[in-house]
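Board notes, transcribed. Complex of a protein with flavin mononucleotide.
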Amino acid sequence: MITTTPMAGITDSAWRQICKLWGADVVHTEFVSADALYYESEKTLKMIQYEPMEQPVVVQLFGKRPEMYAKAAKMIEVSGAAGIDINFGCPAKKVAGHGGGICMLRDMDTVKKIIFEVTNAVKIPVSVKTRIGLNKVQGNPDKGQITVFDFIEAIKEFKIAAMIVHGRSYELPFTGPVNLTALKEAGEKFKEYFPNSPYLINGSFQTVQSVIDDIKYTKADGVALSRALYGRPWLFKQIKDYIETGKYQEVDWEVIKDTIIKHAHLLWASKGEKGFREMRKHLLFYVKGRPDAVKLRQQLVAVDNPKDVEKIMKNI
Ligand SMILES: Cc1cc2nc3c(=O)[nH]c(=O)nc-3n(C[C@H](O)[C@H](O)[C@H](O)COP(=O)(O)O)c2cc1C
């Protein structure tokens, strides 16, 4: 099984559709605040809208107040999402800094209350995403660690449909290699309690070969891809081809151009003129590594609509 992970500022409807076109088995929304859904924020309600072709789409919730979750979860179920993921891994200051995200593992009672609220409120599958661990006490590694193993132990009584583990700690949030040994052992422990629920590894995947090697080593059911997909959503197809046939092909630039133009139109259709500026960062990802990338940059960061994108693509 190969999925996206939730990514704020990236996994919007257009990107999810592009990932599906290239073979993603499941796609995730950006993280969605349980509190904002509870209070029916208009901006947040837009985040739980999807196109039929995105399915199965999983909405990720974050927030540290258990009492917000049942209503938020029900709203997600009614919106037609295929599942709900709960964020127990975010290290961002505005989330973890207030005791949310990964820092919730320091308060397993709240973790349990949240999972209880969500699993009780809905019939759709509920998954969790976390990291391999964090210091028990902020900034003091000598006081010991809380690990993904403690987390699995705490949640074993609930109906967990899947788990994604990012193989880095809170203290090393996005850099360096993942801890493959911890990912492997976490998978074994998860399977003890949840033998039928997919276990997906996440973090630091760069090449088709490295993804396959890491899945094999950890005995995971699959992989959830994040930054590796930047500018190369075809990674889904390449990994699947490699698993099925032992080889995969590089993607022809004409096909890449088609994907870029499609992406631009999907973004325009979902976010309109105001949201279209977000295409600029994707364009820079798409051309990264091309010898003319620096020259193209000036044009790419000035696009205002899909026609601009088409014009640039015609000339390269
Ligand atoms: C820009 C950005 C936004 C992210 N947003 C979320 C999010 O909303 N929810 C979440 O669980 N993880 C989020 N993550 C973490 C990723 O899902 C993933 O776990 C992490 O990037 C590690 O994978 P990688 O090394 O393959 O990128 C985000 C990461 C990045 C770089």
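The chain has 14 helices and nine strands. The first helix runs from residue 13 to 21.
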